[in-house]
Design a protein that fits this description.
A 3-stranded mixed sheet has the order 1-3-2, with helices on one face. The protein is built from 3 helices and 3 strands. It starts with 11 loop residues before the first helix and ends in a 12-residue tail after the last strand. By secondary structure, the protein is of the alpha+beta class. The chain has a domain of 71 residues: High potential iron-sulphur protein (High-Potential Iron-Sulfur Protein, Chain A, Irregular), CATH 4.10.490. The model has no long low-confidence stretch (mean pLDDT 83). The chain is elongated. Bound molecules: iron/sulfur cluster (SF4). The site of iron/sulfur cluster has 13 residues, from loops.
């Protein structure tokens, strides 16, 4: 077969860069799926009740030791981090919380910001 004189050579270096960029962009959602809140929580430092903000909000790792009171129709003994609207995962013993960014709270903990998850 005779080659056409109008065919330009393919720039493989440029093609590799473009394919690499496309692959990186395409994999971003996969990374987000893999980095679930549970996976993120595993990387987070556990919130200490001695943390100044935790103290200010009466955070306890064990809700039964916290000064809970009935709130908005939810009895005190049914209030935990795992059913609070601010917790950011449905699984795991330690979970991210919007009130304590960068820390993980105990699923059975409690603080005075507790609000029933909707
Ligand atoms: S805001 Fe909710 S999830 Fe976060 S520490 Fe307080 S009770 Fe727990």
């Amino acid at each position: 077969m005779k080659k056409s004189a109008n065919i330009t050579p393919v720039d493989f270096t440029r093609r590799r860069v473009l394919l690499g960029t496309v692959a990186t962009i395409a994999s971003a959602p996969l990374v987000n799926v893999l980095l679930t809140p549970r996976a993120i929580a595993a990387e987070l430092q556990h919130l200490s009740p001695d943390d100044p903000t935790a103290k200010a909000l009466n955070y306890h790792n064990d809700a039964s030791e916290a000064p809970r009171a009935d709130r908005a129709g939810t009895p005190a003994d049914e209030q935990f981090c795992h059913n609070c609207q601010f917790v950011q995962s449905q699984t795991g013993d330690w979970r991210p919380c919007q009130i304590f960014p960068g820390k993980a709270v105990n699923a059975n903990g409690w603080c005075s910001s507790w609000t029933k998850a909707g």
